[in-house]
Amino acid sequence: MYTVIKKLEISAAHHLVLDYESKCENLHGHNWIIYVTCQAESLDANGMVIDFKKIKELIHGTMDHHNLNDVFDFNPTAENIAKWICDTVPNCVRAEVRESEGNTAVYEK
Ligand SMILES: Nc1nc2c(c(=O)[nH]1)N=C([C@H](O)[C@H](O)COP(=O)(O)OP(=O)(O)OP(=O)(O)O)CN2
Ligand SMILES: [Zn+2]
């Protein structure tokens, strides 16, 4: 099995829609650190699981310097973003989304 891991650094804003009172309901930003893991049993014609540039294009291109509430049709929690990444990037098996040093969500297929 081949594995590639891409690290992305993204600046983006969001607010959360919650059923309890929280400061996170107010628009605020994070410098998100995201690790995307892709796997394949065999490599493509270019000798890759997936081009690192393609991963960046799909995730960074969609999220960086955006208000995530405008970009996504779901509540942009770290968990939901991790799931979206796994569903969006070909061969993705794991996405780790870090809002800050202490707050990380992981989705694994
Ligand atoms: N399970 C989740 N919990 C929370 C999420 C999330 O995506 N998944 N997101 C948030 C907010 O985005 C919020 O911005 C996090 O705020 P932050 O101040 O960084 O976190 P803490 O309140 O834990 O404060 P620290 O001082 O950093 O511990 C909230 N929860
Ligand atoms: Zn936040």
UniProtKB/TrEMBL annotation:
Alphabetic keyword roster: Lyase, Metal-binding, Zinc
GO MF assignments: 6-carboxytetrahydropterin synthase activity; metal ion binding
Active site, per annotation: 24 (proton acceptor), 65 (charge relay system), 99 (charge relay system)
Positions annotated to bind Zn(2+): 14, 28, 30
Record note on cofactor: Binds 1 zinc ion per subunit.
Keyword Zinc: yes
Catalytic activity: 7,8-dihydroneopterin 3'-triphosphate + H2O = 6-carboxy-5,6,7,8-tetrahydropterin + triphosphate + acetaldehyde + 2 H(+)
Superkingdom in the source lineage: Bacteria
Enzyme Commission number(s) from the entry: 4.1.2.50
Cofactor: Zn(2+)
UniProt cross-references to InterPro entries, sorted A to Z: 6-PTP_synth/QueD (IPR007115), 6-PTP_synth/QueD_sf (IPR038418)
Pathway(s) where this gene product acts: Purine metabolism; 7-cyano-7-deazaguanine biosynthesis
Family of the protein in this entry: Belongs to the PTPS family. QueD subfamily.
NCBIfam families: queuosine_QueD
Full protein name: 6-carboxy-5,6,7,8-tetrahydropterin synthase
Organism from which the protein derives: Megasphaera cerevisiae DSM 20462
